[in-house]
Automatic annotation (TrEMBL):
Xref: Pfam families: FCD, GntR
Annotated protein name in UniProt: GntR family transcriptional regulator
Positions of the UniProt region annotated as Disordered: 192-235
Superkingdom of source: Bacteria
Length: 235
């Protein structure tokens, strides 16, 4: 059975995000095909997709290599996220289904319970699922794809610290779901923007030794002179 290129792409992307392949390392079709047990054809297609997403670059005389994002590129991702997530929430208020609401409310309920118990690892996973579901509720395939790609790249470049006020953070998510349930697009947009702004301070570049001051808590100064070294975690 031929394994589809998108499955190979997902596997390679996950390994890049988790740090299996270091920044700047070569990605040869032969070695990748052997690692994932596929032919070189889906590997070649996967590398093209990953290059379009910014995870891979093609270098002269070296071929495909893992990209080496700059501090500026990392900072830009958080700014783009703060623009797109509120848009997704506003769309969700207009297009969500009852199934979306059921999942979102269930995640908020679990998140609030885990927050009261101080179960940080569970909260990270629940937070990721919450934002994935909220994006899906937007009913916009293009926007969903962009937000999914953003989450992958942010997880690649940043570590997310445990919120100092997890109960408040999940109360914010609950308020977002209430606005979405009421169909109040502007309220959903505003609450999501506030939540994204606060959560930005919990993000830390995976290379703490990179030189440069910070413009605000958790927000690095933009600079294109230094690569961001990383080993990914889920966002």
């Amino acid at each position: 059975m031929r394994i589809p290129a998108h499955s190979v792409c997902t596997a390679i992307r996950d390994d890049i995000v988790s740090g299996v392949y270091e920044r700047g390392s070569r990605l040869t079709e032969e070695l990748l095909a052997r690692r994932y047990g596929v032919s070189r054809v889906p590997v070649r297609e996967a590398l093209r997709t990953l290059e379009s997403e910014g995870f891979v670059v093609t270098r002269r005389h070296a071929g495909a290599c893992v990209a080496e994002p700059t501090v500026q590129e990392a900072a830009d991702l958080l700014e783009v996220r703060m623009l797109l997530e509120p848009l997704g929430a506003a769309r969700a208020a207009q297009r969500r289904t009852e199934a979306h609401l059921k999942v979102l409310r269930g995640l908020v309920r679990l998140g609030q319970e885990r927050a009261r118990r101080g179960e940080g690892e569970d909260l990270r996973s629940l937070g990721g699922w919450f934002h994935e579901t909220l994006a899906q509720a937007s009913g916009s395939p293009g926007l969903i794809a962009l937000l999914t790609q953003l989450r992958h790249k942010i997880a690649w470049m940043y570590a997310v610290e445990q919120s100092a006020r997890p109960v408040d953070s999940w109360a914010e998510r609950g308020a977002i779901v209430d606005a979405v349930a009421r169909g109040d697009a502007e309220r959903a947009r505003a609450l999501t923007a506030q939540h994204a702004e606060r959560s930005t301070a919990e993000h830390r570049l995976r290379r703490p030794d990179l030189p440069g001051r910070r413009t605000a808590p958790g927000r690095p100064v933009r600079s294109s002179q230094h690569g961001v070294n990383t080993a990914g975690v889920r966002h």
